[in-house]
Amino acid sequence: MNQEVEALPRGGKPRLCAGHPPGCRCPQCWMEKIRRPFRTSRGRARDVNQLPGRSGRTREQDQHIDPSRAAVPAALTATVPAPGHQTVPVPSLETLLPPVPETLPPSVTANVTAPESSAIALDREVRFGDVRYPIYVRSGPASWQEFAGLLTELHTDRFLLVTDGGVPAEAVRAVARGLGELAPVTLLRVPADERAKNLSTIDDLAKEAFTSGATRMSVFVALGGGLAGNVAGLLAHLFLRGARLVHIPTTLLAMSDSVLSLKQAVNSPVGKNHLGAFHAPELVWSQLDCLATLPPAQIRAALCEVIKNIITICPERFDEMAARLRADAVYSQAEFAWFIGLCVDAKQRVMAADPHEKGRALVLEYGHTVGHAAELVTGGKFSHGLAIGVGGLVAARIATLFGIGDPAVEEAHEALLLLNGAPTYFRGDFDADRLMQAIRLDNKRGYIPHRLGCIDMILLAGLGQPNHADGSIITQVPEDVVLAGIQSRISRLPSSEGQS
């Protein structure tokens, strides 16, 4: 199968599986079946299928390739190593890698420009209800001057730089020096551990902020991934009943998902994201050069959330997403910008009228009931994005078992995950009962009155079609059905798909 996958054209043209019998259930055949209705019913410009060049690098030459993943696996169902909790190394602002001389497809360049023909610039304004904030996606060393100009307009008396311990010290110093040219800087560090995402950390950082001289005019700056972003976001919300916040996400998951939300939360001792609030940033600055050293496993994990958006919100873009996904996780800066733009569009579609994600936008929680629990019980060893990917497959199976879902949802979701090189099963020794215990404490409880023996879940009736029950997007599923769905995605192999 790997030769077929390698030969897939990276555009939206039909991709037929030569020699495959009718009714074949391989990912390519299933994608062809699912994609067919979108070709004739949509008037989308075809130029979105033309991708930028890959800058002439071979996989062997690319320093971002994990040697063990230097080629597409012999079969897409082969073992895929799952990452431990990693934090992305961020290059120094003074030593950013040279930008890749690429251009974006015409459909994307409506919002993306290259001021010097070698740097990428994507400007978007997020509108969630009455809340609006700008997102800047940039590449190249010259962009820091633009960012400094935006920060100057905040007229702050102090920057409180919140970063996790995994961000390289050199990168932290570089950002701190840049901020220090504008105002005094207080450095607030968070341990690079999901277990540090709690109220105790918030309390410790608040004490440091107050004793450093921070005031209502001060600005919190989150540098890092979702961990730093959530801690900084909740701290900014609580500090003197609300301080200003700026995000500098350094991971693809943060750039394409966590900063595209008003939610700021930390974990309780018994569950994930149990304690939080809604707080909007002043702006988001995503420097694509930070992704140059991102491990392939983290890229795959981030793209699992992008895939979720395709399945739940914009299935008409299945073609485009399938054409871009690579199991080796090697992407250009232009492609990263495309993924981010897609997520902005998807979230905007459901959050424009539901900024607090209590109605239609709850579909963004698809796969999170099981995914968050898996992330929690493994202590973060099963990373967020990968857990959400398998969690979505479990949700699709549950919908089918419960008689409300279309099996094509699970097939389509699995096809994209396989093209992404992501796991599609829990490992064989995964404890389903322990997972159920965590699921019973999921943070979606209470949107509707509780039913004894049921789990509140987000399920799909079809691609892009959330199931509604009694006017709510929440479906209450008997626990035995949930357990059956989980068991259907536990591999018979003890080390399935590399989950450690």
What does this structure look like?
This protein has 500 residues and is an alpha/beta fold. 35% of the residues lie in helices and 15% in strands. The N terminus is likely disordered.
Notable traits:
two-stranded antiparallel ribbon; 500 residues; 15 helices; single chain; disordered N terminus; alpha/beta; 8-stranded mixed β-sheet
Short description:
With 500 residues, the protein is an alpha/beta fold. It has helices spanning 2-6, 27-41, 143-152, 169-180, 199-211, 226-238, 252-258, 296-312, 318-324, 333-351, 368-377, 384-401, 407-419, 432-439, 479-487, and strands at 112-113, 121-128, 131-138, 159-164, 185-190, 219-224, 244-249, 263-268, 271-278, 283-287, 454-458, 460-462, 465-466, 474-478. 35% of the residues lie in helices and 15% in strands.
